Amino acid sequence: MTVLSLSTNSPASRLATRLAFLAAGFSLSCWAPLVPYAKARLGVDDAALGLLLLCLGIGSVVAMPATAPLSNRYGTRPVILVGGLGMALALPALATVDTLMGMAAALLVFGASLGTLDVAMNVHATEVERDADRPLMSGFHGLFSVGGFAGSGGMTLLLASGLAPWAAAWLGAALVLVLLALASPRLLRTRAAEGERAPLFVRPRGIVIMLGILALVTFMTEGALLDWGALLMTDQRGVAPTQAGLGYTLFSLAMTTGRLTGDRVVAMLGGRRVLLWGGVATIAGLAVLLLSPWTPLAFSSFLLIGAGAANLVPVLFSAAGRQRVMPPALAVAGMTATGYAGMLGGPALIGFIARGLGLPAAFTLLSGLMLLVPLSAGLVGRVDDQAQS
């Protein structure tokens, strides 16, 4: 890919990447405290809500496969801006529509915009990190977590203070637009070199498939906490809806802290150990969430889950950028699409399981799937060995 302006190793390009991650995390997490309100407004049960949430995943699945090739042809800048704008405009609709068809349409747009923005900003991050003299991916994803903390925490505070959901959502959308405006002039302007154009559709292959499976499981856990964490606390613990968003806020806080320090942690421990011990901590946190009879301890489990999962995804993305089976940008896009299938489609599966067996059983299944992460930690070590050979 040919860079037309700005250096991939310039402070401006790094700032733009951080702003894009911040906007994405903020937009997505604003939705978490709104889920109980949407469920009550529509008058649906867990299974119907899970089916609606599947629309979010469908939107992303449709948008993701073509995002990396489009970014290759036209540059990541316009794709990032279009995705961010779509999320900002869809957020108020999620807080106001009161029909099933209207909510399905809003979730489709929100999901497609998220998928577009996420793939494009990770491709952009790969380009910036590749020419840097130090690891950057955990820090970039840390800004996503900063946005997650700010979005869920801010939305929870606004709703607890009595502000109507539609008004809180419009405030969130306005902030996203400000972040995009600040990032726009600093994003890399790129285009594909002659003979470098990628096909319009790309699928992961080889070791990228394995990395994608691990990302899928990790993202599924994050998606379950985003869409079902608040309902788990209200239905199983009797927490008021205005306070239920605190759990995801604590999760986002732990993710933020872990990722902002993650580049140093990964450099010190290596990706293999980060996956091993991070996966173990995540599973332990889920166990505390499900088994603790004390509500404050159940809330604290969100901190443990967030700390454990913080650097799993950045390590996987860095591995995708180092592997030699596929071009790095296409590998990142393929892994993103596979991973976000878990984050966006997984909550729908959780809903169907919850209807038959209950939310605790669904989260127990999720804990079992997370075992794949520490058991597969050696995969990253093999990627590192191949990259250094």
UniProtKB/TrEMBL annotation:
GO CC terms: membrane
Keyword annotations from UniProtKB, A to Z: Membrane, Transmembrane, Transmembrane helix
Zinc found in the keyword field: no
Entry membrane topology: Multi-pass membrane protein
Classification via CDD domains: MFS_MosC_like
SUPFAM superfamilies on file: MFS general substrate transporter (SSF103473)
Lineage top rank: taxon: Bacteria
Compartment list: Membrane
PROSITE patterns xrefs: MFS
Single Gene Ontology MF annotation: transmembrane transporter activity
Start and end residues of each Major facilitator superfamily (MFS) profile domain: 13-385
Transmembrane feature ranges: 15-35, 47-66, 78-95, 101-120, 140-160, 166-185, 206-225, 245-262, 274-291, 297-317, 329-353, 359-380
Protein name (Swiss-Prot/TrEMBL): Putative MFS family arabinose efflux permease
Source organism: Nitrospirillum iridis
